[in-house]
Amino acid sequence: MREEQELAYQMHDFCIEFFISNALFVATKLNIADYLAIKPMTADDLAILTQSNSRSLYRLLRALASIEIFEEDHFKRFHLTPKANLLRESIPYGMKRSTIMFDGDEYTLWGKLMQALETGEQVSETLYGVPFWKHLKHNENDFQNMRLSLKEHSIAFCSHIPQVYDFNQFEHIIDVGCNDGTFMAFILANAMSAKGTLFDEPHVIEEAKKHLAMCEKSIRERCSFEAGNFLEAVPAGGDCYTLKSALVDWNEEDGVKIISNIRKQMKPGCKLLIIQSVLPELNKPHLGTQIDLLYLLCDNGKERTEEEFKNILTKAGLKFSKIIQTGYPLFDIVEAFL
């Protein structure tokens, strides 16, 4: 009976997890952690700063304090905690943009999960009237939140790079689907003799140029930019091609096309590194299995198992080499060669 009670408590926690995620979203949108970084404040103080109802805000903060997001003292002042510190702007390993990604639209999407299971279709297109990524491009706030969220995860992951993979073996690294260039900047900071090329759509490359302009001169001087569509072609000349958080957005047919375009430019000795989650087989817990449901809702992409990676690489004409676990839950490295 006690075991059943414990399981019931766990199931209860699962059922109300979205209460917490919604509360986190609202507190982050209101910049509560940024205000508390200045000094401890009461709900009345914070209500003035956030233009909120103080009684309602107190109840929100109390709920989050119960799970150590904030801490309330005997004077009803709320304090920053190590967890809440991650919700501040521009903090190493920060999670602010990830918490407010899609500006609340993600909750509307999750409400369509039953429809996705019934139809097997992209519910995001039904919801927005256009494919998800097209919707994102036309909504500047959502696009920036997504871009900055990816950057947060890149920064957290990139601290693991020197320990898990040696990029010094390469002379020219081409990052296909580069986002803002954060990943490449970290690589070049650790592979001092390598040069890099950032490749993505034109509007993304403009963001990458802005980011790299703030990097050290030794990194800027070794980095070039090229705009294009990886479904059509990719730049030549690399002895290492990287696909970080890019393949996951595409179905198998398009994934094979992307990797085939890379394979056409690869020479003997060249490597392809696919950097994203590798799902475990059977019932092992893994964050990627949950994130995969978001791709079910948003677009044609998916997280993949080792066997699925091997299959897509074989169809594209490449050989699977190995999987390097990075210690970061969202990213493994799948290495392939000609």
TrEMBL record:
<dbReference type="InterPro" id="IPR029063">
    <property type="entry name" value="SAM-dependent_MTases_sf"/>
</dbReference>
<dbReference type="Pfam" id="PF00891">
    <property type="entry name" value="Methyltransf_2"/>
</dbReference>
<feature type="domain" description="O-methyltransferase C-terminal">
    <location>
        <begin position="110"/>
        <end position="318"/>
    </location>
</feature>
<keyword id="KW-0489">Methyltransferase</keyword>
<dbReference type="Pfam" id="PF08100">
    <property type="entry name" value="Dimerisation"/>
</dbReference>
<keyword id="KW-0808">Transferase</keyword>
<dbReference type="InterPro" id="IPR036390">
    <property type="entry name" value="WH_DNA-bd_sf"/>
</dbReference>
<keyword id="KW-0949">S-adenosyl-L-methionine</keyword>
<comment type="function">
    <text>Catalyzes the transfer of a methyl group onto N-acetylserotonin, producing melatonin (N-acetyl-5-methoxytryptamine).</text>
</comment>
<protein>
    <recommendedName>
        <fullName>Acetylserotonin O-methyltransferase</fullName>
        <ecNumber>2.1.1.4</ecNumber>
    </recommendedName>
</protein>
<dbReference type="InterPro" id="IPR012967">
    <property type="entry name" value="COMT_dimerisation"/>
</dbReference>
<dbReference type="InterPro" id="IPR001077">
    <property type="entry name" value="COMT_C"/>
</dbReference>
<feature type="domain" description="O-methyltransferase dimerisation">
    <location>
        <begin position="17"/>
        <end position="87"/>
    </location>
</feature>
<dbReference type="InterPro" id="IPR016461">
    <property type="entry name" value="COMT-like"/>
</dbReference>
<dbReference type="GO" id="GO:0032259">
    <property type="term" value="P:methylation"/>
</dbReference>
<dbReference type="GO" id="GO:0017096">
    <property type="term" value="F:acetylserotonin O-methyltransferase activity"/>
</dbReference>
<dbReference type="GO" id="GO:0046983">
    <property type="term" value="F:protein dimerization activity"/>
</dbReference>
<dbReference type="InterPro" id="IPR036388">
    <property type="entry name" value="WH-like_DNA-bd_sf"/>
</dbReference>
